[in-house]
Amino acid sequence: MSPAQPVILGEMPSLSKLYVNAAAQAARRRVLGTHGGSTLPDAGHEVRGVRADVGNLTAYQHLIGLSARDTLPAGYLHALAFPLAMSVMNRDDFPLPLLGMIHLSNYVEQRAPVIFTDLLDIEARVENLRGHRAGTQLDVIAEIRGAGKPDIRWTGRSTYLAKGVFLPGIDVPSPHNGRPDFTPPDPTAVWHLGVDTGRAYAAISGDFNPIHLSVLSARALGMRRSIAHGMYLASRALADVGPMKGETFGWAVTFDAPVFLPGRVALEITTGQAPDGTWQRSDYAAWNPRSGRKHFSGSVAPL
After folding, report:
1. CA-based, 20 to 30 A from 267: which of 14, 120, 150, 221?
2. 40: closest CA among 84, 82, 4, 80?
3. How does DSSP classify residue 115?
């Protein structure tokens, strides 16, 4: 069965309002002892005629460590689409609690450049509800097109986990042996992240999830300190890969452990080249330089 036509929204949703509604929804479900079922909404959400804010774009480029350009960075496009993805997961018929979702991985295809003056149509939907040894996971798909045009310029698949939530009828996979051991290599860079890193990214992305903002708000949700946004970290690694990736590429990241703030992150980037010297692929990994624990890893490659 093909998915239903998306629900057209008049404007981009407010993330702050979505978080408030998610908290209220979670409270109702706890009191009533109910959940949203075991199926995903069959319709996504779409907003048409979106344009990037130049001041916001400039602030993002500065925060991530990018030089000013007219082309919208792939990570910025993720942030642009994020409120729409959140709105789908905030529906009453969405079966999992939005608050407390863990971002497991992300894969982006930057299929064509997007210029800051372009009008854009943005759509988000959810699919592939499935079991996880620690709960239930799903994929959130976001797509960006030129306004009124069919070709997808940017698409992202974000996999999220509702830890500790096991829905009826969803099989839980057998335990596995875990990820391979990680031996920290010699870093090519070390980032020093201040305690305000989460607030700085939230001010640009609109993602004011309390776990990123302060020690007190993070502790209220069970974290010992605030943590950096995963997509801030991944976007900064992508920026460190540099301009060799060109305008079209696939970008993957898997998140392993949170980065507590303030903190330091060691990063290694390795680049593969063809015999003629052309770029083939860049791989990156980031870890805690004191404990050696891996925070995230990923790759960038031509499409």
Report:
1. 221
2. 4
3. B
Q: What is the pLDDT of residues 100-141, one digit of tens each?
A: 788 999 999 999 999 999 999 999 999 999 999 999 999 999
> Cα(121)–Cα(148) distance, rounded to whole angstroms?
7
Domains annotated for the chain, with CATH where assigned, are: 1-173 (3.10.129.10), 179-303 (3.10.129.10)
Measure the CA–CA gap between 298 and 246, rounded to whole angstroms: 17
Question: Residue 71 to residues 64, 77, 155, 245, 251: CA-CA distances in angstroms?
Answer: 15, 10, 16, 14, 17
Pairing between strand 189-193 and 45-50? unpaired
Q: What's the rounded Cα separation, in Å, for the pair 110 and 156? A: 9
pLDDT (mean) for 70-86:
96
Work out the number of other CB atoms within 10 angstroms of the CB of residue 175: 8
Share of the chain above pLDDT 90, in %: 71
Q: Which residues contact 4 (CB under 8 A, 6 or more apart)?
A: 42, 43
